[in-house]
Design goal:
This protein is of the alpha/beta class. It has a single domain, classed as STAS domain (Transcription Regulator spoIIAA). It is built from 3 helices and 6 strands. Strands 1-2-3-4-5-6 form a 6-stranded mixed sheet, covered by helices on one side. The radius of gyration is 14 Å and the shape is globular. This is STAS domain-containing protein. Pfam families: STAS (PF01740). InterPro entries: STAS_dom, STAS_dom_sf. It comes from Spirulina subsalsa FACHB-351.
Length: 121
């Protein structure tokens, strides 16, 4: 399975041992077709029944509406699974504060962890 996706402004890394997909940078792809490889990576990573699976978004500084839509559809698809989905976000990133809590509406069992920056004084 392809484990990493690297673009000009972003990286998506799959840690199979930790059942985690981490997103870094800024994701502003054109539409659902461009997000297809990411969607496939997420679906393949969760195709087997896992105890838990983590989406680490805390270093994803920007995600456009097409990306949010792709993430939402992935979360909705997780309803069919018994896997505990954990989403880690950052309190410091405006789009995450606004959008990540909406994912819990699609999957009430989703565990959302919003982390504060370590640089707070």
């Amino acid at each position: 399975m392809k484990s990493d996706i690297v673009g000009e402004d972003y990286r998506i890394l799959y840690d199979e041992q930790g059942n985690t997909v981490a997103f870094y940078g800024e994701l502003s792809l054109s539409g659902s077709k461009d997000y297809e490889p990411i969607k496939q990576l997420l679906e393949e990573a969760t195709s087997e029944e896992l105890e838990q699976f983590t989406l680490d978004l805390k270093e994803l500084y920007f995600l456009n509406s097409s990306g949010i839509s792709m993430l939402s559809k992935f979360v909705i698809g997780m309803r069919k699974s018994d896997t505990q989905l954990i989403v880690i976000g950052s309190e410091e990133i405006p789009w995450q504060k606004k959008s990540l809590s909406n994912l819990q509406k699609f999957l009430p069992s989703l565990q959302l962890v919003m982390e504060a920056s370590e640089e707070t004084s």
